[in-house]
Design brief:
Layout lengths: L17 E4 L9 E3 L13 E4 L8 E2 L1 H4 L12 H5 L8
Parallel strand pairs: 2-4
Antiparallel strand pairs: 1-2, 1-3
Length: 90
């Protein structure tokens, strides 16, 4: 792990580092953001906090940490999988 990609609050060096959180939505784990205008916040109103007030295992947003990648593949599309399954398909 490098200092450039903090995965959790424990990876941040500064206990006074400002962070932003949004109210938890049912079923979602708590995530902190390093910037108040992070695209992972959506249209929710973020609440400001500091690193020392968060549990060290709390995840840092993948967009903020630089861990997010748009190279994720979803596999073969369903239409391709079932092509030719019917007698009248070419």
């Amino acid at each position: 792990m490098t200092d450039d990609t903090p995965a959790t609050v424990g990876d941040l060096d500064d206990p006074d580092r400002e962070l932003w959180v949004v109210p938890n939505t049912f079923g979602q784990s708590r995530t902190v953001h390093l910037e108040p205008d992070c695209r992972g916040i959506d249209d929710k109103e973020p609440r400001q906090t500091v690193a020392r007030q968060e549990h060290i295992d709390t995840d840092v947003c993948a967009y903020c940490s630089g861990a997010w990648s748009n190279t994720v593949t979803t596999g073969t599309q369903l239409g391709t999988k079932i092509k030719g399954a019917w007698a009248d398909d070419d």
